[in-house]
Write a structure and sequence with these properties.
Layout (H helix, E strand, L loop, with lengths): L2 E9 L4 H9 L6 E4 L3 E7 L5 H12 L5 E9 L1 H11 L3 E3 L3 E4 L11 E4 L11 H13 L6 E5 L5 H8 L4 E6 L2 H13 L5 E5 L10 E7 L2 H14 E13 L3 H10 L3 E8 L2 E7 L1
């Protein structure tokens, strides 16, 4: 799949970069990376509407005391792997876990290691949400549990679930290359209990999960909440991330409407993860 990289610069940068991400999350953007001058936003090329983006940006910022500029860049699928490999930095979750690529120095590792080859998946873009979800998992009793990992990306959460003793893990993503990448990374980490499946929540017929993990985006999570509830066992646990702390209250309210009980919250650099119980 080809992508558009949208580079948006702000003067001053704050708080406008975070506001822009919140606004663009309403469009089919799949990933955001913050930099010193603003943000980089990634969207499938076939879904990019320049006029729509211009209207959204300038209508929301032109009346404020902020200078904003943006430009787009076309990224071919064949170049996407190399871009993510070059951008992927080691991820550390406290002193408990290191997420490394094969080209990283293994002396950087903490107690537990997950080695992944990122390829085209977006699972390495938001280090904050990756760390938050891993932190939740490291605190949870996983032994013998059945786990669903929605929007698996590179498979990090699925692999960690198996390392922590999960009995069965279903890793789902809408992109076939993400599923392929997850299975390759599972094999790289000697995992035997991860099943990959391409599709959305509709491809998941099972309704007996002990734990559901979903590190996606705000709008998808809100849309999927009723399905997550129906696929969890009684007393099952739902972990959500991929959104900002400013979105947490909306998600908590929506979860309450489908009878999910809010348990706890983790935050890092304006990103958020939430834990719910059924």
């Amino acid at each position: 799949m080809d992508y558009i990289e949208l580079s948006i610069n702000f003067e001053p940068r704050e708080p406008w970069a975070h506001i822009a991400i919140a606004l663009l999350s309403e469009l089919p953007f799949e990933s955001f990376v913050e930099n010193e001058t603003g943000i980089l936003a990634y969207i499938p090329a076939m879904q990019f509407n320049k006029e729509e983006v211009e209207k959204l940006i300038f209508e929301n910022f032109r009346m404020n005391e902020v200078c904003v500029s943006f430009k787009e860049r076309f990224i071919e699928q064949e170049n996407w792997n190399a871009k993510w490999e070059s951008d992927f930095e080691p991820v550390h979750v406290g002193d408990e876990l290191s997420i490394l690529a094969p080209f990283h120095d293994k002396s950087l590792a903490k107690k537990r290691i997950i080695e992944i080859m990122p390829k085209m998946s977006f699972g390495t873009g938001h280090h904050q949400t990756t760390r938050l979800m891993c932190s939740f998992l490291l605190e949870e009793s996983i032994l013998g549990k059945k786990v669903l990992d929605m929007g698996t990306g590179t498979g990090i959460l699925a692999i960690l679930a198996e390392q922590l003793g999960a009995n069965t893990i279903l890793a789902v993503d809408i992109e076939d290359w993400s599923v392929e990448n997850t299975l390759e990374n599972a094999e790289r980490n000697a995992c035997k209990k991860i099943e990959g499946r391409c599709g959305d929540i509709d491809c998941v017929e099972e309704k007996d999960f002990d734990i559901i993990l979903a590190n996606i985006n705000r709008n998808t999570l809100l849309r999927h909440l009723p399905s997550y509830f129906s696929k969890l066992k009684d007393n099952g646990i739902l972990f959500l991330s991929g959104f900002f702390t400013t979105d947490a209250e909306d998600i908590i309210i929506a979860a309450r409407e489908v009878e999910l009980t809010f348990d706890s919250q983790k935050s890092e650099e304006n990103w958020c993860a939430l834990k719910f119980k059924k």
